[in-house]
Amino acid sequence: MAVNINTVYTTVLYILNKEQRGYITPGEFNSIATQVQTEIFESYFPDGNQLNRQNQNNTQNDTEFFNMFKDTAYKLYPFERETTFLYNTPNDGWYHGGIGNIFKIGEIISNYTTTNPNYNSITQLTSKSDYTKITKSKLTSPTVQYPLCYTTQTTANIAPATTSQLLLKINPKPNTVTVNAIFQPSNPSWGFTVGGLGQFVYDASSSVNFELDISEQTNLITQILKYAGIIVRDPEIIQTATQEAQQVSVNEKS
Questions:
Q1: Are residues 156 and 111 in the same domain?
Q2: Do 170 and 218 fall into the same domain?
Q3: Is residue 230 domain-shared with residue 159, that is, in the same domain?
Q4: Which of the residues 7, 28, 60, 200 could staple to 24 if both were Cys, CB 3.0 to 4.6 A apart?
Q5: Are 167 and 201 members of one domain?
Q6: Are residues 59 and 105 both part of a single domain?
Q7: Do the strands 166-171 and 148-153 form a parallel or antiparallel pair, or are they unpaired?
Q8: Domain tally for the chain?
Q9: Sheet with 148-153: strands ordered across
Q10: Range of the domain at 88
């Protein structure tokens, strides 16, 4: 379940108003909300790595509902999906032609449908330098059973992207490619109309909720307040929100 953006914004405004600390506009809030969501989303990966080490050392709580590594992985599930990559002849590579921006690539499956038998092969992702060394050797040269690939960037835009995008260079060339990937969350936005008195009125139809799990609602509010303190130039808000965020982080990782 995602976090409702109107709930977060109204809570932030309520706290600021109650403490007489100022006001942030919808535009300012949306910019802060995007930054905070990105920071929380990206924190899952180093946090997950740290918690996984606790699993390996048998120091992680494995009780149902209290395994923090599983909880962190659960928060990433909405962003994980399987997507088909398309082949681009001018760039001689495979790219994501669907909606959304890929944050991390997971398992790559190269499908060879013109061979007998057909192969759906897990593809090893390596660096460009290792790729060159491996493909030059007859003993280690990739096959349809054990394909090899590396990533690069396009030199020209490929629709629907508006900028250069990630390309997979796969050897041998497959017929189709399927990738399990983590996608970046959409930017949140508090949409509004202007009322008769010039006030901002929430418009759910033009709004975009946070895509983070509902358990992150308190964290979102706290982190947004920290940045709101910068905008309204109140160091006390920054200090209080920072201390609260640090305490939440300590409680989650202890």
A1: yes
A2: no
A3: no
A4: 28
A5: no
A6: no
A7: antiparallel
A8: 2
A9: 119-122, 102-112, 176-183, 80-88, 93-96, 166-171, 148-153, 124-125
A10: 80-183
Give the torsion sign (CA, 43, 49, 52, 57). Answer: negative
Give the global pTM: 0.78
> Are 136 and 86 within one domain?
yes
- Say how far apart CA 162 and CA 165 lie, in whole Å: 9
- Residue that finishes a domain, picked among 183, 199, 232: 183
Q: Which of 129, 155, 183 is the last residue of a domain?
A: 183
pLDDT by 10s per residue, the chain, length 254: 789 999 999 988 888 877 666 788 999 999 999 999 999 999 888 765 665 555 555 555 566 655 666 777 788 889 999 999 999 888 889 999 888 889 999 999 999 999 889 999 999 999 999 999 999 988 889 999 999 999 998 766 676 666 678 899 999 999 999 999 999 999 999 999 999 998 899 999 999 999 999 989 988 988 898 888 755 555 565 566 556 555 655 555 55
